[in-house]
Amino acid sequence: MIASIAEAKGYVKIAIKCENKNAKKARLLYLKASQFYLQDAQKQNNPLYLQMAKYLYNKANSLKTKTHHTSSLKTDDSIKPYRNLTIGFDDICGLKEAKQSIKEKIILPFEHPEIYKVYKRTAGGGILFWGPPGCGKTLLAEATAKEAKAVFYNIKISDILSKWVGDSEKTITDIFGKASKEPSVLFFDELDALAGERSGQDSSFGRRLTNHLLSQIDGVGTKQNKILVVGATNSPWTIDTALRRPGRFDEIVFIGPPKKEARKQIIQHQLKGTPVSANLDLNHIAEKTKNFSGADVVALCNDAVNIPLKEALEKKSIRPTGTADFDKALEKRKTSLDSWFKEAKTQLLKIQQQDIFKEVFDYAY
Q1: How far apart are CA 250 and CA 128, in angstroms?
Q2: Cα–Cα distance, 360 to 365 (Å, whole number)
Q3: What is the distance between the alpha carbons of residues 150 and 27, in angstroms, rounded to a whole number?
Q4: 72, 164, 188, 263: least surrounded by Cβ within 10 Å?
């Protein structure tokens, strides 16, 4: 009973963290926590646990309108490989250094296994994408699978916890088992929620899950298959250090805000097919959007285009989007990354890992 309540508290902690960013995941976690409290309330005839179960259940239902979630839960069949991927490295603006690291670590071993065999090296392994939100970690992982001519598994923590309470380890085993049948990229999004520092986890469930993931990653190197494990996190300081040992996530790649040329490319891509002023000053806009995430730049483009769009809807003449529209949009649209960089620097200095994640300190915040 104590263990189940501890697990419930662990679910609630994760749910609180992801409630604003992923209401669907938070709702599922609140429901699981509610089930634990309800079970123990019935066993112990504990009115406080019953009250907590009701509270968490109501909390989950309050998120229902945000998730558009149906009553049917996920099954293991929902974790399916994506094939015939269409997005490759050429479709992603910027991230030149990250692409090169991925090519050397992943693509070349997949393409030339016979050469690597001569040097007793095998394809596969682990790579960790880290950095602020909205900068393309998921997109880059998908593009990696396309470049490696591999299938792509996009695995979120809700895929593992949504139905398999008490059986989550088996779910992870099944995922690796499926992937072993063909060249595959396993992408674990929000890895910190799944494999946080074991010493800081309140529940035995969290520690068991982290240990089991570690054992599966270790097993990849002992099999004659091509499995690449990619993890992504916005908070690398919470990742269990054991995951960064050789043979696990030994390649750490920073996915940061797009640089100036990349921002210009994103703007051009977003405006493609819409009326655009011939005098649009891309250099000016790119300078004004320094330290914007890719998602911030996309949102800014939408804001700017909406200005002439609204004018047209008010029966004014249709006109192209110009530099002045971007300047007006910039009055309200700022970078969303300020708080992340400040938090990252604070945490990395606290745990004295500024040398490992040094890229954070290249940005002036």
Answers
A1: 8
A2: 10
A3: 32
A4: 72
Cβ density class 192-214: b for 16+ within 10 Å, e for less: bbbbbbbeebebebbbebbebbb
pTM comes to 0.71
pLDDT < 70 positions in the chain: 1-4, 41-42, 47-48, 64-78, 122-125, 161-167, 193-207, 219-225, 364-365
**Start-to-end C-alpha separation, the chain:** 47
Per residue in 171-188, pLDDT tens?
A: 888 888 888 888 889 998
What whole-number distance in Å separates Cα of residue 186 and Cα of residue 155? Answer: 7
